[in-house]
Amino acid sequence: MKKYYERYKHAIPLLIYAVIYCTWFAYLEKKVVHPETIIHMKVDDVIPFCEIFVIPYFLWFAYVSVAVAYCFFKNKQEYFKTCVFLFTGMTLFLIISTLWPNGHHLRPYVMPRNNIFTALISHLYNVDTPTNLWPSIHVYNSIGAHLAVVHTPSLARNKKIRTGSFILCTSIILSTVFIKQHSMFDVLTAFMLSGTMYVVVYQADIVGACQARRPGIKRRRTV
């Protein structure tokens, strides 16, 4: 048991944060019913509704989970970087949603077509309210997952995985506006936050710096 604990104890921060995030987000979903801040940009009105993008929207859950899980088992250094990147953005999202409850009025009142994709979107609309949107966590975490892929040597060396990750990341980002889950404002602010955190986590390498300061620990290059 002790052997497994030592091997996988780096899962503890992830598990603790998952409980905190889910509890906080569930509270906001119940509290924010009629938000005072309505998010809208003119470009939102010219973006068409395209239901097929519900596929990459739902693939987001697997995409982010697999990226984190791979780093967890294969590259602890990149795992910590990914967690810092994701946790920081998600926490800022929760703070913004708490202090400035927000929402949008972009969803169609009636589905323009009747097919399996619009049925999935209708189900999504029923379980996910059009509130707590800024910045888009779908966009932010997709960027974080792709950064994890391109900064993990064993994944980055595989051109098919790297290209596939980029295509999936891009598709998920587009899906947020094409199925009217987010305003372009949510997307743009997610990119701005991602750019800032990229500099902090990957350029400044705060994770590596913190680990290097721990006594008796030498950083090892992961192949």
Structure description:
It is a single chain. With 223 residues, the chain is an all-alpha fold. The protein has helices at 2-8, 12-31, 54-74, 76-99, 116-127, 137-151, 153-156, 159-178, 184-203, 206-213; strands spanning 37-38, 102-103. It has a two-stranded parallel sheet. The protein is globular, with a radius of gyration of 19 Å.
Brief summary:
The protein is mostly helical and 223 residues long. The chain is 68% helix and 2% strand. The protein has ten helices and two strands.
Strand fraction: under 5%
Largest sheet: 2 strands, parallel
Query: What sequence of helices (H) and strands (E) makes up the elements?
Result: HHEHHEHHHHHH
Distance between the termini: 28 Å
**Number of strand elements:** 2
Low-confidence parts? 219-223
Secondary structure class reads mainly alpha
Number of helices: 10
Shape: globular
Strands across the major sheet, in which order? 1-2
Average pLDDT reading:
92
Helix content: 55-70%
Radius of gyration: 19 Å
